[in-house]
Amino acid sequence: MTDWPTGYGRRVLAEVDSTNAEAARIAPTLAGPEWILGLRQTAGRGRRGRDWRSQEGNFAATLVLQPNEAPDVIALRSFVASLALFDAFVAVTARPEAFSLKWPNDVLLNGGKVAGILLESAGFAGGRPSHIAIGIGVNLAQAPDAAQLEATATRPVSLISECGAQVDPETFLDVLAPAYAHWEHQFVTYGFEPIRTAWMARAARIGEVITARTMREEYVGTFDSVDKSGNLVLKTAQGAVSIPAADIFF
Ligand SMILES: O=C(O)CCCC[C@@H]1SC[C@@H]2NC(=O)N[C@@H]21
Predict the structure, then answer these.
(1) Are residues 183 and 157 in the same domain?
(2) Is the pLDDT of residue 2 over 80?
(3) Which residue, judged by its Cα, is nearest atom 11 of ligand 1?
């Protein structure tokens, strides 16, 4: 196993409401990056205001970072985190073919959702946040009951049910943190291009027809690529469209 990355803090909480909420509380006291792992999370939150149910044995953690960057650059961190998750999953299962990345920031295992990412930023001054919180939830041990999710949600799966790999949250953190540090270094050193290329090489359904639903519209088209801003590029009957935020359906 790779060593814990230099310069990154690590704290483990027996119970927390939400590791992203905890990140916001402690961010002003931090001088550098910090991982916060909640062994029990009682009020986890997901994207678009949804709840995130954190079941026993699952992974709920947040990385707090202090990048001095504009929001559009910061938003690309979800691709950085997706790549780190992909590598961590491969490290614990040795099954790269089983995993794929779903735009914008889910990880799929055998086509079901095994992990999600919630990126939040706060403390804005001069258009830049003082910190960001990259919240990561992984169904290590249990998948939520599909009946309790929205009917259109991607089928949830757990690592153990699909791969038989029994991994506890602290062990997963110790694999994920160095993987994240690697991709973060690539991002700050070389920019988004190597991240974009690596992400597309692991993407689900490139070249296939998918549906993207934004707050106002629905697009059906061929998943062409992710552009230099992280937008989803779909080739539709009306031409190429570049979509900054949407839920996608296969
Ligand atoms: O909707 C999604 O797919 C994103 C889910 C993110 C859940 C994680 S669990 C750890 C962190 N703390 C939270 O409250 N949410 C994120």
Answers:
(1) yes
(2) no
(3) 135
* Mean pLDDT computed over 91-113: 97
**Residue range of the domain that includes 34:** 9-201
What are the angstrom distances between the C-alpha of 64 and each of 49, 61, 131, 153, 226?
A: 20, 10, 7, 28, 25
Residue 169 parent element (H or E): helix 169-190
In tens, the pLDDT along 203-230 reads 999 999 999 999 899 999 999 999 999 9
* Residue 234, domain CATH: 2.30.30.100
Torsions phi, psi for 53 (to 5 deg): -80, 120
The rounded distance, in Å, linking the Cα atoms of 250 and 72 is: 27
* Distance between Cα 239 and ligand 1 center (Å): 34
Residues 139 and 225 in one domain: no
**Residue list, ligand 1 pocket, CB within 6 Å:** 18-20, 44-47, 50, 52, 60-62, 106, 116-118, 135-137
Please tell me the distance between residue 85's alpha carbon and the centre of ligand 1 in angstroms: 14
What total of structural domains would you count in the chain? 2
